[in-house]
């Protein structure tokens, strides 16, 4: 009898719910991309310094995009940080690899006390060792809980961090009046030649006191998973959806959502209000640095969705929620 879940392989690795072309794994395709596709001009996006004191001095519900896939969220007494990345490069080394074109809108050593850190997967632009270690070090007396996809706990344990939990897709953890659920994403994992040995995911954070629901999609291509997520949770109050790293489409479309894909995700998950992410910080792919928000507006108009329902906020701006 086969008791393996659909996204589990017999060798202990993981796979997506829906089969995709493995273009990103083909050496020929990688060489074609690197040799034939031209990189865009390096540009910094508009950004401001996040006023972190607002998160310390209020019980108001707040959210701020710190950069790339890093959001700071406060609601119902809990402060949540997603995919913290405060380093200059998305790389195992700080002398080579994708370099930031836009600095983060906060410094890691100035953060308010963090209660929960959500990690979507182990790629270097989402799991940054220096940032994670700094957060852990500066909160040793009151450490945050790192909420991880399946298999990633070993990485944290190896670095002396023991305050973590791992969740498989559709598993939940309850803490302090909140429910955190790992949900499917269409992507892959690996920080070396060993690929897909840890899971990748999105996260749903639900405040049980008022049933407010936050959805952090992580890094993902578009798939039927989002309709299932929206139906399961009956929609979301706030969603954080990726809109960048999508060109060239022949190479990226299965693993990175385009702005058009993100609008479909917004509709599929039944999001009342969405914020864009995963653009403007690193030059990872071939679209012009400032293109994603413009493409997003075009896609929203095409689908007759108000641009105020899915916004590209200024990096570092603080939005008040549920007023």
TrEMBL record:
Entry-linked InterPro entries: Metallo-B-lactamas, NAPE-PLD, RibonucZ/Hydroxyglut_hydro
GO cellular component annotations of the record: cytoplasm
Gene3D superfamilies recorded: Ribonuclease Z/Hydroxyacylglutathione hydrolase-like
Key words, A-Z: Hydrolase
Domain Metallo-beta-lactamase: 80-279
Region (Disordered): 1-20
GO molecular function: N-acylphosphatidylethanolamine-specific phospholipase D activity; zinc ion binding
Name the UniProt record assigns to this protein: MBL fold metallo-hydrolase
Species this protein is from: Vibrio fortis
Species lineage: Bacteria, Pseudomonadati, Pseudomonadota, Gammaproteobacteria, Vibrionales
């Amino acid at each position: 009898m086969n008791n393996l879940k659909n996204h589990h392989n017999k060798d202990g690795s993981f796979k997506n719910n829906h089969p995709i072309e493995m273009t990103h794994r083909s050496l020929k395709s990688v060489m074609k991309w690197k040799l034939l596709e031209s990189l865009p001009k390096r540009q910094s996006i508009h950004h401001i310094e996040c006023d972190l004191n607002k998160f310390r001095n209020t019980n108001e519900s707040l959210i701020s995009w710190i950069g790339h896939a890093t959001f700071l969220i406060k609601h119902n007494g809990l402060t949540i940080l997603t995919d913290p990345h405060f380093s200059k490069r998305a790389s195992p080394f700080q002398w080579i690899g994708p370099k930031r074109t836009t600095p983060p809108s906060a410094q890691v050593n100035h953060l308010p006390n963090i209660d929960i850190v959500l990690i979507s997967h182990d790629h270097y632009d989402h799991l940054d060792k220096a940032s994670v270690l700094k957060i852990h070090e500066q909160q040793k007396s009151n450490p945050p809980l790192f909420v991880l996809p399946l298999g990633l706990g070993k990485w944290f344990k190896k670095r002396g961090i023991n305050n973590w939990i791992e969740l498989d897709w559709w598993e939940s953890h309850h803490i302090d009046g909140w429910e955190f659920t790992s949900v499917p994403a269409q992507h892959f994992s690996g920080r070396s030649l060993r690929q897909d040995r840890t899971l990748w995911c999105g996260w749903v954070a639900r405040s049980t006191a008022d049933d407010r629901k936050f959805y952090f999609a992580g890094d993902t291509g578009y798939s039927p998973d989002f309709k299932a997520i929206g139906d399961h949770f009956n929609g979301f109050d706030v969603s954080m959806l990726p809109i960048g790293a999508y060109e060239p489409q022949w190479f990226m479309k299965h693993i990175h959502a385009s702005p058009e894909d993100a609008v479909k995700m917004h509709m599929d998950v039944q999001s009342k209000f969405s914020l864009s992410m995963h653009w403007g910080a690193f030059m990872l792919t071939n679209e012009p640095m400032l293109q994603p928000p413009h493409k997003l507006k075009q896609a929203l108009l095409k689908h007759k969705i108000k641009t105020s329902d899915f916004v590209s906020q200024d990096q570092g701006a603080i939005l008040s929620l549920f007023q």
